[in-house]
Amino acid sequence: MNRIDPLVLGIETSCDETGIGIVRGTTLLSNTIASSMDEHARYGGVVPEIAARAHLDELGPAITAAVAEAGIRLADLDAIAVTSGPGLSGALMVGVGAAKALAVALDKPIYAVNHLVGHVGADLLHSTTETTDSTDSTDSTDSTDSTDSTDTEPLEYPTIALLVSGGHTSLLLVRDLVSDVELLGETIDDAAGEAFDKVARLLGLPYPGGPQIDRVAADGNPKAIRFPRGLSQPKDMAAHRYDFSFSGLKTSVARFVEQRQDAGEPVPIGDVAASFREAVVDILLTKALAACADYNVPRLLLGGGVIANARLRLRATERTDAAGIVLRIPPLSLCTDNGAMIAALGAQLIMAGHKPSTLEFGADSTLPVDQIQVCSAG
Amino acid sequence: MLLAIDTSAGTSVAVVDLTRGVLAERGENDTMRHAEIVGPFILACLHEANITPADLSGVVGGMGPGPFTGLRVGIASARVFALGAGKPLVPVISHDAIAYGHYRRGHRGPLVVVTDARRREIYWSAYTAADAAGLPVRAGAPGLAKPAQLDDPAWLHAGWPRLDAATVSAGELGLVAELSYAHQRPFAANEPLYLRSPDVTLSAGPKRVSR
Ligand SMILES: [Zn+2]
After folding, report:
1. Closest Cα of chain B to A251: distance in Å?
2. Selected residue of A11, A40, A47, A93 to mutate for chain B interface (largest B Cβ count, 10 A)
3. What is the CATH number assigned to the segment(s) B2-182?
4. B172-194 pLDDT, tens per residue?
């Protein structure tokens, strides 16, 4: 196996994106994503069975498309990488079963890896052109963002990583991507992305909630309503210093909306959205920056689909600048769930000399973040 | 030679050949560990049959019916193995394998195959007989029913001999594919037979939080 610049295909099916990525070392060759998001819209959130059915339908076509885009043959691959967890169990199982079958069919080694650590690995990737990510269609306004990882400086360790999506909200201390990742805290109830979806529904806005909240918040005052910051009271900070909670915030927004409706007054949707978003952004960044300070780590990396939120990126830039912390944000197409980040982590494991996984691993919906690779052969 | 994979009940993988029969087979009745064991089973069967993927002429996938979480693992594995090996996928209805085995062991005439669909429901398929090639002749698409429905005298296939099966043999699934190909019979559609819609209910809207 080529351990210098391994050619790796990554398979990611932990939530509603069927992601197939192909990398050569740290070079991104394809980031193919088929999303079932539209199918979930009418239910106001990801329906696990619909996501899993979509993975089964999309996997084969996505592999074919990724291979074509990368300009390789499957036989050229050095290894397969796949998300073993955490994520939706039935969805993960589709990717795990398929990845093993592909590895055996091609007689290639397989690396079963952790989804959350994969989000961090995404930052290592650069595209062949060294400019912007060619597969990135959602992100054109961000190509000038100086914090994009289109910069050429490599990721430095240790770094704090804040990973925020509809499925997870986690704060990690990454001392080494392939050998030492520690969970500092995570949400104890809803993921931040779920909170956006639920509040959007309260305001009569469609799914997914993040972009909708952003849209109406543009006309709102983020200081109009002081919504609570979860787990920020002194007693909470003792037990849950780096944990997050968004269910109280959601309830508080609901109560505010109901009071206005009961009084026959119009709901100031712009102000509610802006104030809610400010509360989420504030608590996310306050806890992340506290971790940077406590561990004396002047680096913060963001990942996950909620990073698409412009206000979060703006406030993160302002607050890390003020605190003297280096901020890294991968291109948005690599922040949302994708197979390229899984391939990137697999390639890092190979380059660090790690053995492949044995074929016995399964899907682990609650895989702990310190298990970077599952069922390593030695 | 064909590699056959079925996870509509437990997990079963086999390598079969039209003239030499089942060359290797691995089975596990556990209905929770499909994703764990399907890969090792494929590898074990290839080793035992002493072949590489290049020696295969196709990959058979059991399309169910079966409980969806497990069923999908086998179909995903079969489809992606076929893609990786550059071989055609051969979809076969899993109940046909059960019926084929029963006819081969001497059953004659009508037959209703029944498997567990969980949630106090069953999957069923009805067959009139085995044809000259030994292939079961199905009398309609697989169905999903309450158990009582099959005992109702008014049911279309009431009184037909019934076979309740807990497992599906990938060896028999593969032989159905071999025989279907040899006798130019159509294969099944490349679609999982879930026979159930996803469990979702449209919410009536946000619930009130204040009283
Ligand atoms: Zn994610």
Report:
1. 7
2. A93
3. 3.30.420.40
4. 999 999 999 999 999 999 999 99
